[in-house]
């Protein structure tokens, strides 16, 4: 079980998003949570199997998004008639 995938899924739960919005306040133009983020309660599933399944599905989803994003970049290059990027261009494309 990967903690980062589990945390990502928990932070995207509607109940957690609602808690974050309720604790968020605006100071000037910047929205901030400050130290109030530590007041947010994360609904961690007790069942280890469920936690592992959620982490695995989140990891698969993130990897699929990376593949699709790279495919979209390649399609846009193909549409523009640009050949495969050189090594230094690949680094630039990765940051986009």
Short recap of the structure:
The chain is mainly α. 62% of the residues lie in helices and 6% in strands.
| H-E order | HHEEHH
Number of strands: 2
Counting structural domains, the number is 1
Spatial order of strands in the largest sheet: 1-2
Helix content: 55-70%
> Mind summarizing the main beta sheet?
2 strands, antiparallel
- Total of DSSP H or I helical runs spanning 4+ residues: 4
Instruction: Label the overall shape.
Output: elongated
- The percent range for strand residues is 5-15%
Q: Radius of gyration in whole Å, from Cα?
A: 19 Å
Q: Which structural class best describes the helix and strand composition?
A: mainly alpha
Average pLDDT reading: 82
Fold and architecture overview:
- The protein is mainly alpha-helical.
- The protein has one domain (3-95).
- Helices cover 62% and strands 6% of the residues.
- The chain has helices spanning 3-11, 14-23, 48-79, 87-95, and strands spanning 25-27, 30-32.
- The protein has a two-stranded antiparallel ribbon.
- A hairpin with a 2-residue loop joins strand 1 and strand 2.
- Helix 1 packs across helix 3.
- The longest helix has 32 residues, at 48-79.
- It starts with a helix and ends with a helix.
Keywords summarizing the entry:
6% strand; elongated; 96 residues; two-stranded antiparallel ribbon; mainly alpha
Helix-strand blueprint:
Blueprint: H1 3-11, H2 14-23, E1 25-27, E2 30-32, H3 48-79, H4 87-95
Antiparallel strand pairs: 1-2
Helix pairs in contact: 1-3
